[in-house]
Design brief:
97 residues, mainly alpha
Length: 97
């Protein structure tokens, strides 16, 4: 059982390192890729260039104001009883005085 979890730990670390390496490689490819001479028009299809020009919606939706109050907490007096079971079996006897 211990060897299985140790092998899983190595596997997870390897997947994490490979994922970080893939992100770094793809970032380098996106930054340094080039096109041929005839692709200077705005209609050339390049999926790498499309990621740079993809439009992201950065607007936050406006929410309606809350006009009513809500009860957040109900004040109730709670008495919690401490459960201490009485045991007759002890690990060792009490110390002698």
């Amino acid at each position: 059982m211990l060897k299985v979890s140790a092998n899983r730990g190595v596997f997870v670390r390897a997947v994490c390192v490979l994922s970080v390496a893939l992100v770094c490689v793809m970032g380098t490819v996106q930054a340094t890729h080039s096109h041929s001479e005839n692709s200077t028009t705005s209609r050339h299809t390049c999926s790498i260039c499309a990621t740079a020009h993809a439009g992201l919606n950065t607007q936050t939706p406006a929410s309606a104001p809350v006009l009513l109050t809500a009860v957040l907490a109900i004040l109730v007096v709670e008495v919690s009883l401490i459960f201490r079971p009485v045991t007759s079996q002890f690990i060792r006897p009490p110390p002698a005085l």
